[in-house]
Specification:
alpha+beta; Thiol Ester Dehydrase, Chain A; six-stranded antiparallel beta sheet; 28% helix
């Protein structure tokens, strides 16, 4: 679905995993190349050590690149896509004892490479880093997100969302009857 930056901001603000964990989208920039997010420490996201729960931090970074890239692809004329977080690695470097913030910025060369690869190959896997800082600017966590993007109409053939699996899943998949698929 194509959204305006303001609409995406408000959808995310009231998205239950964000709303109840005190993850607040401050701004989605007009060109969809940056988003600014704050994670407020509260009783709803605090662990036994009185720091922000690691799952809250991970929830905050999980959908961001996929959402921004999906909006950019739609504006580039690639309207039927699948974008999802294929894998992620998060390092908790310092206890999050106070509010956290981070910005995701997509640089021109990253966007250009992504668009070119999707247009030429129909799919792409890109990796992005996110640094999560406390209010003093100290690095508390670092996330490395691998994003899978596929054009469902690549090659003039429309695919259903259910038919699309990342390559690593496709190769090892079984058919619906529990037997190995030998037609590949």
């Amino acid at each position: 679905m194509r959204l305006s930056p303001k609409a995406l901001k408000w959808v995310l603000r009231f998205y239950p995993p964000f709303f109840f964990q005190r993850i607040w989208v401050q701004k989605v920039h007009a060109d969809f190349r940056q988003i600014d997010i704050v994670i407020r420490k509260s009783l709803l996201n605090m662990n036994i050590n009185r720091t922000i729960f690691g799952g809250t931090i991970f929830s905050a970074v999980d959908p961001i690149h996929t959402l921004l890239l999906d909006q950019l692809l739609r504006r580039a004329g690639i309207g039927k896509t699948v974008t999802w977080l294929k894998s992620a690695k998060i390092e908790y470097l310092k206890p999050a004892t106070r509010h956290l913030s981070f910005s995701v910025r997509l640089h021109d060369d990253e966007v250009r490479e992504t668009l070119d690869e999707v247009k030429n190959k129909g799919k792409v896997i890109k990796t992005f880093d996110i640094h999560i800082l406390d209010r003093d600017g100290l690095l508390c966590a670092r996330s490395n997100n691998e994003i899978y993007i596929r054009d469902l109409t690549f090659g003039g053939k429309t695919r259903n969302f259910e038919d699309v699996q990342p390559d690593s899943v496709e190769r090892g998949s079984n058919n619906h009857r529990g037997r190995a698929d030998t037609t590949r």
